[in-house]
Design brief:
Radius of gyration: 18 Å
Shape: elongated
Number of helices: 3
Distance between the termini: 18 Å
Strand content: under 5%
Largest sheet: none
């Protein structure tokens, strides 16, 4: 099995997306059942946590730039 930086990035992004979906579903469930105070919900909405750091974005840019030097992936 290949384990290059692109594969690791794809797995990390998939894990992050899964975690974000689970969090969103949990919040929706709590809100739907009236188990969350209005103030807590407002705090969650007004103070989002950044999913990406500048270092992550720079790494993704470098990876994308290096991919242009490789042969195209098979469809």
């Amino acid at each position: 099995m290949r384990n290059d930086p692109r594969d690791r990035l794809i797995r990390a992004l998939a894990a992050q997306l899964g975690a974000e979906r689970e969090t969103r579903a949990a919040i929706a469930n709590v809100v739907a059942n009236g188990q969350i105070d209005r103030e807590v919900l407002i705090a969650l909405l007004e103070d989002p946590i950044s999913a990406w750091s500048q270092e992550d974005l720079n790494r993704a840019d470098r990876l994308a730039a290096s991919a242009t030097h490789h042969r195209p992936m098979a469809a």
